[in-house]
Design brief:
Blueprint: H1 32-59, H2 76-87, H3 89-100, H4 104-130, H5 140-169, H6 179-210
Length: 211
Amino acid sequence: MTNELLPVESKRLRPALDLSALPTVPVGVRAMTWWGTLGFAVIEGTTLAITAAAYLYIRQNFRTWPPPHDPLPALLIPTINLVVMLASIVPAVLTDRATRRLDRPATRLWAVVSVVFGVAILVLRWYELWALGVRWDTDAYGSAAWTVVGFHTTLLVVEVGETIGMAAMLFKARLPAHTYSDVYDGSWYWYFIIAIWVPLYVLVYLLPYWV
């Protein structure tokens, strides 16, 4: 008996799924970098919570707060900076939306506006630190207050620096596809930085007036 090749009936192949509508650039929870940013926010949020707890722990060792001979923190510059921070959420949201549309001109525009806000916030933060009225080495109160504000400042510095880098990349002739995802993650992390500062502002600048 000889082996013979049997004719195979040709069939028209049809795709099981149409993936043409899926985005070519993952943005948000579909991107691994988003989860990395989330993890970073959890770590930094925990660290800031520890600094706030240390501030409150030191507070219980004093009859008055700030301790005698330490002035109350000035409120003008810190409050102005808080308002500027809250206003900076607007360009961050517009940047966020532009990246999800893969709209390069809009993303570039609002990223630059975010940089302007970020630099202004850092300048105000410098004066805000001195609005505490004490140096970091004056006493325990000064060390605790500077630790809370100073650590949050490091997050601002890093994020503003990253925003400047992302904005610069958006002016390149050939834009890497992952840039949109990176810019989106930066906007999302900015929300975290501003949101976590609100209770810290109350803790460091308003609490001394209430206790």
